[in-house]
Amino acid sequence: MKLEWFKQVVDDLSEGVVIINKDRVIHYHNQLAKEMTGWELGDVVPYCSYCKMREVAPGEERCILAHEDPLPSFQAHMPTYKGKKETSFEMSTTKIPLEGMEFMVLILRNPKWTSEKERLKIKKLLIRDTIATQEKERKAIAMELHDDISQGVYSAFLGLQGVKHHITDENYQSHFRKIEGTLEKTLDNIQRLTKQLRPQAIDQFGLKATLKSAVEDWKKFYKVNFTLSYQIHEYQLSKEVELQLFRLIQEAVTNAVRHGKAKEIMIKFTESEDQIMFQIIDDGQGFDVGQTKFKGLGLYHMKERMAMINGEVNWDSKIGGPTKVEGYVDMNNKGC
Ligand SMILES: Nc1ncnc2c1ncn2[C@@H]1O[C@H](COP(=O)(O)OP(=O)(O)O)[C@@H](O)[C@H]1O
Ligand SMILES: [Mg+2]
């Protein structure tokens, strides 16, 4: 293809394209980039409002998009020479080696052009990514807590036991018992936190056993009565479905206790021909669903978690309570 044709194609794109060298000098820009920014060939592309301010280590690249570990895309204010004002752009870059030198292709997009639909799609993908990353991180932290910190505290506890009988002074003995008590409590807390971060039982024993054990812990910890009914016999749930359902219940229970001040919580799982259904009902203070929905991240994540496994969740509540969180997972999809 002739160079002229390439230029025509790039000029017709609905995105601004700017090619810069490693000193940020503009070697080429398409018509749209020129109109958007007012930059000219030979100009040095300024840093965006974020990169200008961000702290960088000695030798580190200031531009977040040209970084060793670059972001796929990024939105920030960029100083333009058009009317001398800063404009908000979505930006992404690709590094390309040309004739032995390294160039960067900077793609500029006016966020106003991104359609609402596209925006929602990106938001959804981001949330799903965040949830997946969160799970990975939680697993890693749970392992560290269990295998390192908990072992360390336990060794200290055992070490103390070894010197216990040498302490004869009454004052030191009571001091010793306090330290012993603190270590025991810390071990309990680590264990509780580890389970919360990654209910190991999910991987080993499945949702039913994990829920049973969690309900026992919640009863003690939250001082709330629980009824658990798990009537799923036909379906063998995948680990992914089990984990997402467990996280949903965890959030619903925390919300019932924390926001609703519930004293009774019922968790119910049933199945039909092609779905499994769940309900979490609490007798707490309730809330105005229309007003509150998706103001916090918890409900939003619950919704997204269900969408990830072909399911749905809905809330039925009013001020004064009760609150019903219910939904289903479609089992027709063999991927589940
Ligand atoms: N079971 C519940 N009882 C009473 N209020 C609730 C309940 N679940 C959710 N809410 C209300 O919905 C809001 C949003 O919940 P959520 O998205 O989990 O965010 P967060 O828990 O971080 O506040 C809560 O702040 C609370 O006002
Ligand atoms: Mg919450």
UniProtKB/TrEMBL annotation:
Keyword Cell cycle carried by entry: no
One matching Pfam family: HisKA_3
Domain spans labelled Histidine kinase: 140-333
Listed SMART domains: HATPase_c (SM00387)
Keywords, ordered alphabetically: ATP-binding, Kinase, Nucleotide-binding, Phosphoprotein, Transferase, Two-component regulatory system
Enzyme class: transferase
Gene Ontology terms, MF aspect: kinase activity
PROSITE patterns found in the cross-reference section: HIS_KIN, PAS
EC identifiers of the protein: 2.7.13.3
Superkingdom: Bacteria
Catalysed reactions, semicolon-separated: ATP + protein L-histidine = ADP + protein N-phospho-L-histidine
Domain PAS stretches: 2-45
CDD domains attached to this UniProt entry: HATPase_UhpB-NarQ-NarX-like
Alphabetized PANTHER family for the sequence: NITRATE/NITRITE SENSOR PROTEIN NARX-RELATED, NITRATE_NITRITE SENSOR PROTEIN NARQ
Identification of the protein by name: histidine kinase
Protein species of origin: Alkalihalobacterium chitinilyticum
